[in-house]
Specification:
Shape: globular
Subcellular location: Nucleus
Strand content: 15-25%
Largest sheet: 12 strands, antiparallel
Distance between the termini: 31 Å
Number of helices: 5
Helix content: 25-40%
Pfam families: SGF29_Tudor
Protein name: SGF29 C-terminal domain-containing protein
Radius of gyration: 22 Å
GO cellular component, one term: SAGA complex
Main location: nucleus
Length: about 290
């Protein structure tokens, strides 16, 4: 890794530290406002009182800080993936898998009375995805392949930590039998999660999924924090003309943040070679660990 790369990663780490400190300060202010409103709820009815406006501003600030933190964290992960030697991939994968198990245990710990500031920020970020299009893994756990499609988030349940999403692409009649009230049970995601159901409604499929089955797309309105994928990097991308995502390799980096990626999709062979396809940057995300295709 070159010195400029290390310097850039250190700067991002400092920025993460700054964002977390700012988040703690905002959360303290929010808690103060909550105590004030609980002790004197009648204050909001007084002329000139701006308590609710201030509270809304604080929540907006907390949401923006949380989104920035997640974006910079994703950028750091992308940079680390790009420079980790191939020989260390096994060790890196084991470390990641270990971290995922820790996360599952944390989420299964229902006896923890309070969420940490970072977890509260994460919850707020998940809730902010309502109405957004995201990438969702909808295949059964014991399936041979992972199926990722574009869905719309309709709700996030903070208690169960599940997303309710809608696949707006009309499905086959055989999946729902043409009935609006037909149900199908998916396998358990893990011992720490409940069974996940999906049902067909007017040939549109609805799912309840854990956060690990959801990947937000980069926002066009937030180009400064959009992750960069270098040539040779494997990604998950929307195949042109479809609402499905497949594994692909970056052929050409973007010259500008608004440019499309030039990708080669796996298993997309034509006449003995892989065609290069242009995909908008906001339809390309990091390849999930352990992806099966």
């Amino acid at each position: 890794m070159s010195s400029p790369d290390i310097a850039e990663m250190l700067e991002k780490s400092k920025e993460l530290d700054r964002l977390r400190k700012e988040q703690e300060e905002v959360l303290l202010e929010i808690n103060k406002m909550h105590k004030k409103l609980q002790s004197t709820p009648e204050a909001v009815e007084k002329p000139g009182d701006n308590s609710l406006s201030k509270l809304k501003m604080l929540y907006t600030q907390a949401k923006e800080l949380s989104e920035s933190e997640m974006s910079i964290s994703n950028q750091l992960l992308g940079q680390l993936d790009a420079v980790i030697p191939a020989g260390g991939a096994g060790q890196q994968r084991r470390r990641i898998e270990g971290n995922e198990q820790k996360k599952k245990r944390m989420k299964g710990d229902s006896d923890i009375p309070r969420l940490s500031p970072s977890m509260r920020n994460q919850q707020e970020f998940f809730a902010s995805l309502k109405g957004e299009q995201v990438a969702a893994r909808v295949a059964q756990e014991d399936g041979e392949k992972d199926e990722w499609v574009i869905v719309k988030v309709t709700h996030y349940d903070k208690e169960s930590k599940e997303f309710e999403v809608l696949d707006e692409e009309p499905g086959d009649d055989e999946e729902g039998g043409g009935q609006s009230n037909s149900f199908c049970l998916l396998n358990d995601y893990s011992p720490s999660y409940k069974n996940y159901w999906f049902y067909s409604l007017a040939n549109y499929r609805k799912y309840k999924l854990p956060w690990s089955h959801i990947i937000p797309f980069p926002k066009i309105s937030d180009l400064a924090t959009t992750p960069e994928f270098p040539p040779g990097k494997q990604v998950l991308a929307v195949y042109p003309g479809t609402t499905a995502l497949y594994k692909a390799t970056v052929v050409q980096a973007r010259k500008r943040k608004t440019d499309d990626y030039t990708l080669e999709f796996d298993d997309d062979e034509e006449d003995g070679s892989l065609p290069q396809r242009l995909v908008p940057f906001n339809q390309v995300v990091a390849l999930p660990d352990g992806h099966r295709q």
